[in-house]
């Protein structure tokens, strides 16, 4: 996912993988922010 989506929003690709609940909990601790909508 990281290489395929490099430089882009990988949210959909990440969610499509079907990560475990444990992986999703780990992710919460790694989040450092959200990207602004740059399409405007």
Overview of the molecule:
The chain has 40 residues and is mainly alpha-helical. It has one domain (1-30). The protein contains two helices and no strands. It is globular. The model has no long low-confidence stretch (mean pLDDT 86). Residues 1-36 form the Cytochrome b5 heme-binding domain. Pfam families: Cyt-b5. InterPro entries: Cyt_B5-like_heme/steroid-bd, Cyt_B5-like_heme/steroid_sf.
What share of the residues lie within helices? Answer: 40-55%
Class per helix and strand makeup:
mainly alpha
Mind summarizing the main beta sheet?
none
Percent strand equals under 5%
Q: Which segments are poorly predicted (pLDDT under 50) over 5 or more consecutive residues?
A: none
In total, the number of domains comes to 1
Number of helices: 2
The helix/strand order is: HH
**Quick one: overall form?**
globular
Number of strands: 0
Pfam family, one: Cyt-b5
Domain Cytochrome b5 heme-binding: 1-36
Organism: Cetraspora pellucida
Protein name: 19755_t:CDS:1
Topology, please?
Blueprint: H1 11-17, H2 21-30
Features of the shown structure:
40 residues, globular
Compact summary:
This protein is mainly α.
